[in-house]
């Protein structure tokens, strides 16, 4: 079969089927073999791996994954792409296709039934309209993933990889630091896609920690505090935690907690590292649970 991830390969498939691009599904297909090679190389795939591919499209990444992985499970929401994927890959014994919204699939069950004990890796050129919900779903579900290698919008990649105190640093950055370490694989021009989107992209890889890098007494409280800290970025940590934290702590006592933690009440939440959020979480947990 011809390589799909090129201009000619993609055009040939599109000419053969009555497929119409749907903007609402974020359909921008990769047509640059060089970028494809970088994704596959970064994902470091072997026969021992089961790859979950989110949004296979017409199968340009899928084709490469199938030639290397022991198992590929592709999850595609668009019914119109299913016949294309079935025609091209239906005969591959290591291919499973699921026609559904990835956010609605029970991935625990899917992995139990299909992964055959292999290492689980996610590889995807993600639909940009739901990049963050997909990544957070993958992390919060504790799916025992080894790596997540994804194409995302460039500005989202910068947010994911940002340093405390910068404009890009946000709740998603801290959450990702809690679950993973990441590296930017490559930047990708908008011209590497059909149709070309009006933003550039980047491939980023997340390696999941065996154990979070900080100890917190209550993970739910950590994320509640992180969310509140970034809810009103222009306000001090004291004001935003008091207004948005749902912590049930009088303001003067919250001020004392922040001052005694060494973090201070007048800093902005956006300057705190994951380690400082962990310290704060544990102090607030102690306060809330003192008898
Ligand atoms: N992998 C292909 C490629 O690289 O050319 C297509 C990538 S395209 C950016 C995103 C793909 O995700 C599309 O095929 C789209 O239909 C699919 N998609 C969008 N929303 C989805 C969802 N909620 N669940 C599963 N697939 C989705």
Write the layout of secondary structure elements.
Layout: H1 7-16, E1 29-30, H2 33-43, E2 49-54, H3 60-68, E3 71-76, H4 82-89, E4 95-99, H5 107-114, E5 119-125, H6 131-140, E6 145-153, H7 154-160, H8 171-179, E7 180-188, E8 193-194, E9 201-208, H9 219-231, H10 237-244, H11 251-260, H12 274-289
Parallel strand pairs: 2-3, 2-5, 3-4, 5-6
Antiparallel strand pairs: 1-8, 6-9, 7-9
Helix pairs in contact: 9-10, 9-12
Can you walk through the features of this model?
- It is elongated, with a radius of gyration of 22 Å.
- The chain has helices at 7-16, 33-43, 60-68, 82-89, 107-114, 131-140, 154-160, 171-179, 219-231, 237-244, 251-260, 274-289, and strands at residues 29-30, 49-54, 71-76, 95-99, 119-125, 145-153, 180-188, 193-194, 201-208.
- It folds into two domains: 7-208, 3-Layer(aba) Sandwich (Rossmann fold), CATH 3.40.50.150; 219-288, Helicase, Ruva Protein, domain 3.
- With 291 residues, the protein is of the alpha/beta class.
- It has twelve helices and nine strands.
- The termini are far apart.
- Helices cover 41% and strands 19% of the residues.
- The strands form two sheets. A seven-stranded mixed β-sheet has the order 4-3-2-5-6-9-7, with helices on both faces. A two-stranded antiparallel ribbon has the order 1-8.
- Helix 9 crosses helix 10 (237-244) and helix 9 (219-231) crosses helix 12 (274-289).
- Bound molecules: S-adenosylmethionine.
């Amino acid at each position: 079969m011809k390589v799909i991830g090129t201009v000619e390969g993609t055009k040939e498939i599109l000419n053969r089927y009555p497929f119409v691009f749907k903007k609402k599904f974020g359909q921008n297909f990769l047509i640059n073999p060089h970028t494809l090679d970088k994704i596959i190389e970064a994902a470091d795939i072997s026969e021992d791996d089961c790859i979950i591919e989110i949004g296979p499209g017409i199968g340009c990444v899928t084709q490469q994954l199938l030639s290397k992985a022991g198992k590929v499970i592709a999850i595609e929401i668009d019914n119109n792409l299913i016949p294309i994927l079935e025609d091209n890959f239906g005969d591959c014994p290591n291919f499973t296709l699921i026609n559904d919204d990835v956010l609605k699939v029970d991935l625990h069950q899917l992995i139990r039934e299909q992964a055959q004990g292999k290492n689980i890796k996610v590889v995807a050129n993600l639909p940009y309209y739901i990049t963050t919900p997909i990544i957070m779903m993958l992390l919060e579900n504790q799916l025992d993933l080894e790596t997540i290698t994804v194409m995302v919008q460039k500005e989202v990649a910068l947010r994911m990889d940002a340093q405390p105190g910068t404009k890009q640093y946000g709740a998603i950055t801290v959450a990702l630091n809690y679950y993973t370490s990441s590296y930017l694989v490559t930047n990708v021009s908008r011209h590497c896609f059909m149709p070309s989107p009006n933003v550039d992209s980047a491939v980023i890889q997340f390696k999941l920690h065996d154990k979070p890098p900080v100890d917190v007494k209550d993970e739910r409280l950590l994320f509640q505090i992180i969310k509140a800290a970034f809810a009103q970025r222009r306000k001090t940590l004291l004001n935003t935690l008091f207004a948005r934290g749902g912590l049930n702590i009088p303001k003067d006592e919250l001020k004392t907690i922040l001052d005694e933690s060494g973090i201070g009440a007048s800093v902005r939440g956006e300057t705190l590292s994951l380690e400082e959020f962990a310290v704060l979480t544990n102090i607030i947990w102690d306060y809330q649970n003192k008898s």
